[in-house]
Amino acid sequence: MKLSGIISYPITPFTADEKSIDFDVLGETLELLLKNGSDAIAPLGSTGESAYLSLDEWQQVAEYTIKKVKLRVPVIIGISELTTSGAVNRAQYAQSIGADCVMVIPVSYWKLTEQEVYNHYKEISDAITIPIMVYNNPATSGIDMLPELLVRMFEEIENVTMVKESSGDIQRMHKLYELSGQKLPFYNGSNPLALEALYAGASGWCTAAPNLLGKKPKELYQAVANGQLSDAQEIFYKQLPMLRFIVAGGIPKAIKAGLVKEGVAVGQPRKPLRGATKTEIHQLDTLMADFSR
To answer: How far apart are CA 61 and CA 47, in angstroms?
Structure first.
């Protein structure tokens, strides 16, 4: 599976009482992301509040997204499970409904050894035939997979074919590139590093930014791909204040607040997450006004 460009993350919209998913609005936001130049759609990550969904809700969102996208771009289903058996079950379900790929982040109450992480991915790989994107995000998962382990899994585990690197360390990306002999496709998961990461050889950018920034993330990717450095810098620095706000404010609430400002009734994040404060909404108003100029 050769995947490049912008991998976009949709939110999971809830009804006003937060008890149900609003699938009509989910469909609206998916169409928005496709319109904004997404090269793949990745539901059920942190943007989609996957950790706050029941198994049944997770399955419903996965199936709805695949049916709504209708093969227009690849769909990458996010999986974050404490147990290997739980991750295997979700990966098998994703494959059964037509997912093109699964993105797996290991999470654990107890710190895992490198061999335990390796075994986790090996068992998932043995249970499915679709590609696995390994997701390294120590800030949210509590598990930091070093480049040496990521390259080892890429070389030894059949369906591990790509990495999303979200540690925020550009040197990690350089090392992935070097250790794999330039063979391991890696994707930037740190919004403020987008420009540097793409120039460091990232195959794409995994981001929720197209929800609020329209086609600008895709324009950045294309400018870098075309070697247009000055254009890429201009496009990136225009986005950077909003990219920083999205990360600092908490991705689900920042994206949902912005979509509400655009007239999309996505609802609030699910408790214990809360919506944007008045101060954050004021900051968002200013950023959106500056960006539209």
So the answer is: 13
Domains of the chain by start residue, with CATH: 5-99+185-292 (3.20.20.70)
Distance in angstroms (rounded) separating the CA atoms of residues 118 and 133: 14
| Residue-wise pLDDT tens digits, 87-131 | 999 999 999 999 999 999 999 889 999 999 999 999 999 999 999
pTM to 2 decimal places: 0.96
CA dist 171 → 59, 133, 151, 196, 263 (Å): 36, 20, 15, 10, 40
Amino acid symbol at 254: A
Question: Of the candidates 14, 8, 6, which has an alpha carbon nearest to the alpha carbon of residue 253?
Answer: 14
SS3 6: strand
**HSE of 32, CA atoms in CB hemisphere, 13 A:** 21
- d(CA 249, CA 114) in angstroms, rounded, equals 32
What are the residues whose beta carbons fall under 8 Å from the beta carbon of 291, sequence distance 6 or more?
Answer: 213, 238, 239, 241, 242
DSSP state of 5: E
Contact in structure between 84 and 120 (CB atoms under 8 Å)? yes
Q: pLDDT tens across 135-166, in order?
A: 999 999 999 999 999 999 999 999 999 999 99
